[in-house]
């Protein structure tokens, strides 16, 4: 990644009141396994999503190895774990382990983080044969639910407890908020995490 683009993204993340990350592993054309960290943050009241980190993996890669790479990047760029409100990963063993996996290491530095499992690949495969008209309806639904999920996360993050959000949702005139935001989080193919 270009140094000036990386610096701009890092500054925006530092200014943002919160951010979330998605960690995923991929294999390039030369069969080199790499892991990617994608970040989503608020910039000028708009959500932005960018690649934060691309790191080559060794043949034997543990949750600790992945965490150390992310932690060293965060330390090097002076990023605050307290602003991280969510992490999304796949269900790999080195990722999801509560003690030795990436999840266990994250809970040490950021115990407040909401953890979610990415099942977006299965969702994407399920909707591929849909006609265009139904895809449009699904895309609008995904956009609406994600907007409402963001409202919920801001309330929980800002006030520190889901009870405040429940009060908001109960008083809300929008029955859609009351009915759906606590039940489902929809995603786009690329944007499969937290908000």
UniProtKB/TrEMBL annotation:
Top-rank taxon: Eukaryota
Protein name, UniProt field: Zinc finger BED domain-containing protein 5
Source species: Araneus ventricosus
InterPro entries per the UniProt record, alphabetical: RNaseH-like_sf (IPR012337)
Source taxonomy: Eukaryota, Metazoa, Ecdysozoa, Arthropoda, Chelicerata
């Amino acid at each position: 990644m270009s140094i000036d683009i990386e610096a701009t993204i890092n500054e925006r993340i530092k200014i943002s009141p919160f951010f979330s990350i998605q960690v995923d592993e991929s294999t390039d054309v030369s069969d080199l396994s790499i892991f990617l960290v994608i970040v989503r943050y608020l910039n000028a009241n708009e959500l932005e999503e960018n690649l934060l980190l691309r790191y080559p993996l060794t043949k034997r890669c543990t949750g600790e190895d992945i965490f150390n790479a992310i932690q060293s990047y965060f330390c090097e760029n002076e990023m605050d774990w307290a602003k991280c409100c969510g992490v999304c990963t796949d269900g790999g063993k080195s990722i999801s382990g509560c003690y030795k996996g990436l999840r266990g290491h994250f809970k040490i530095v950021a115990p407040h983080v909401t953890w979610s499992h990415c099942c977006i690949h299965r969702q994407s495969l399920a909707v591929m044969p849909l006609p265009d008209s139904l895809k449009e309806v699904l895309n609008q639904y995904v956009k609406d639910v994600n907007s409402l999920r963001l409202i919920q996360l801001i309330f929980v993050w800002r006030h520190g407890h889901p009870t405040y959000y429940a009060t908001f949702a109960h008083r809300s005139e929008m029955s859609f908020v009351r009915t759906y935001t606590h039940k489902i989080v929809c995603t786009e193919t690329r944007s499969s995490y937290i908000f």
